[in-house]
Amino acid sequence: MQPTVERIPDDLLRRFDVAGPRYTSYPTADRFVEAFGADDYAQALAQRRSGAAALALPLSLYVHIPFCESLCYYCACNKIITKHHDRATAYLRYLSREVDLHTALIGRGQTVSQLHLGGGTPTFLNDGELRELMDMLRRSFNFAPGGEYSIEVDPRTIDVKRLDTLAELGFNRLSFGVQDFDPAVQKAVHRVQPAEQVFALVEAARVRGFESINVDLIYGLPQQSPESFDRTLAQVNQLRPDRIALYAYAHLPERFKPQRRIATVELPNAAAKVSMQSRSLAAFLSAGYVYVGMDHFALPDDALAVAKRQGRLHRNFQGYSTQPDCDLIGLGVSSIGRIGATYSQNAKTLDEYYDFLDQGRFPVVRGLALTRDDILRRAVIMALMCQGQLLYESIELAHLVDFKSYFAAELGTLREMAQQGMVVLDDAGIQVTAQGWFFVRALAMVFDRHLQTDRTRARFSKII
Ligand code: SF4
User: Which residues are in coiled coils (predicted)?
Assistant: First the structure.
């Protein structure tokens, strides 16, 4: 479904700007339990090996590189700040052991159609280390031609020459962490990267034929104002990346220690944040971007926008994707994986991660075996978030439930949202409206059983 709305009124943004998860998984990662551990993960992998999934569906890989040279004050990621690049040597050795544990169970040569290197800062690794990592992965897995192979790039850690290495190693998608081009904002968050540097890198990446270039932006940062952010928006439109991810900064200093370095008085107030959000939507839509959903925009001919038009969008831990739902192996400290009807997460500290691998065990410390209800609700949430519509019959056939009675309470809530123009309900199913697409997270939250009783929603970043 293609949204045709060009401007979302501020009062709607304000009304639906409630706290909520991003639904890169359902149930969300905060529901994982320690009762699910390394042995459960090994069992899920063994089941994959014996099941049809191993033959039919390719794998997705996520590799977490936790190191960063310097601290961005808004950071909420799992990272290790260090200038000691030799720490990468040991880390790569342990990553290799973790991969070996996998191939011992599922065999070498499993097809991979999607790889994402995230962090931290993946480009903390030098060219030789990146090559070593990719060689190791290619020895263990079979990378399908035409797959999505992406890497997060910190513009401060890379020059035009390094782009050649990334292209040569098979990466075809780059994601640049920009956040804001304004020098005062960059200084306030301790991440100074001149706009000219980013423009030069993006230009060089285009010349080298990278298929898709993404830029991450954040609004709500210290020293930002709607007027200053307008200038950044204009620069981003001039840069014209294929994809834009626009996130709201959630100031949670009690939870994320680096954020304590941000002076609260420098933060824009709620009204200014709403204004930045609404101006961003207007700026990107009028520049011809398609609103893919949940903070993401893409140029009309980008694969993500095409998939959206064709109802082929999917969602995984990296956000929206064109790749069909497949099992995801998460490698590295704190990584999350999804195998069959399970989720798992690795140890969050290096010591613990190394310790598990020294014992020859998967470094999984928590996870979840999904119940039938979880799987059903996941299907409903993903249908709303990816296709913008849901046919009762298709859910009923796949999950053997009577939709209207199983979800009677949820449909009651949706009827209220229908009056506000977010959805259309009829006998056959639910259709998200063009306007509702901008609030699809709020619609998904209606079906989140865990959230319905949750009193700690403030933990999550703001919706949209
Ligand atoms: S925002 Fe990214 S680059 Fe900055 S400290 Fe966090 S993980 Fe590192």
Answer: none
